[in-house]
Amino acid sequence: MIPVSEALDKLFALAQPLGSEEIPLLEANGRVLARDVVARRDQPPFSASAMDGYALGGDVDSFRVIGESAAGQRFDGTVAQGEAVRIFTGAPVPEGADRVALQENVIRDGEAVTLSEPVAPNANIRALGNDFRAGDRVEAPRRLSPEDLALLASMNIDRVPVARRPRVALIATGDELRMPGEDPGPDQIIASNTFGLHALLADLGAEPRLLPIARDTPESLRCVLGLVDDADLVITVGGASVGDHDIVARVAGEMGLERAFHRVAMRPGKPLMSGRLGPAMMIGLPGNPVSAMVCGHVFVAPVIRAMLGLGAAPAPREALRLAAPVGANGPREHYMRGRIGSEGVTIFDRQDSSLLSVLGAADALVVRPPGDPAREAGESVNVIHLTQR
Ligand SMILES: Nc1nc2c(c(=O)[nH]1)N[C@H]1C(S)=C(S)[C@@H](COP(=O)(O)OP(=O)(O)OC[C@H]3O[C@@H](n4cnc5c(N)ncnc54)[C@H](O)[C@@H]3O)O[C@H]1N2
Ligand code: MOO
Fold it and tell me: What does it catalyze (predicted)?
């Protein structure tokens, strides 16, 4: 068994960043920017009024209105001292004007305008380029947010270079498994792990694909592994342990798996394996439902981020207070299911790795290092959030 940190290092060594592709801006939300992009224009491209009112020429109190500047249709002339131009929000400030008065703060009588309160120089004017200048960069890598898309649009960028989505083949293994909605026999259960992992992968920006369930025979597993096609990452679930029907390591080995490791000093997730299988990376996850999802957060998510070019880093952790005491940990790093409240994080009593109802109630994994002593309420522990991406 190797420690979690060593397993992560070996996974990162296997996880090569993928190439990039150009896509329309409208499809880029959540994708990872692959190269810096450069603003194609200044914003605003002219000095613009921030308010509806009057653009004023000179530091006097009374003005004569000589025209109008609207958004999209500027006033073409020059404003001299004692002249004003009716102006609207977003419109270009005309030549010669150096301040804008709000219409609420003037008295208008025909073409005459008198200030009812003073207006400071540059008031209510957005200088040319005060948001960004042509040539300013949005730096890669970054996962594009809705706010980023608005920024890129205003930079006049309509196509975006993004990292290709990692293609992930998901294979459940086990004679006992049936798909949700099917009619299981008395000794059968429903395959759940691949559904949780599919959602996790999609959220991370990967392109997951569910392959048929492999039965517990070498022929069946070989057959399904033969369907992985052009996947960058093959994930098997179950059959990773030491039982007579746990055949994943053997069959993958016969098919040429260059194994990087098998078994990690953690709870749950001990039988995790990984290596290179032909052109793809392979991760063999344990079958216990909580083990599969915990390994999804602790190993698969960082691997997908590395493939997307976001760097090789473990799942982010946050130090939080314990809301209640917890006993000593054993020799394996323990990822305990818990829930965060106003008093800190509460670790659930039931930690068996088969309990999906407990995992579903959790929003945090409390990371207990090997040999961690018993802890009191109020002590600090490291937590991985289950809802973050
Ligand atoms: N003698 C030992 N037995 C076990 C050990 C060990 O070290 N020595 N390790 C235990 C640990 S830890 C785990 S975790 C499990 C994992 O074993 P496998 O990866 O071989 O998983 P399976 O045996 O195939 O299944 C375990 C459990 O999970 C259910 N399962 C499997 N796939 C799915 C799925 N897609 N959806 C829902 N549930 C699934 C399966 O029915 C079993 O109940 O081994 C321990 N044993
Ligand atoms: O991964 Mo196993 O579930 O440690 O329980």
Answer: adenylyl-molybdopterin + molybdate = Mo-molybdopterin + AMP + H(+)
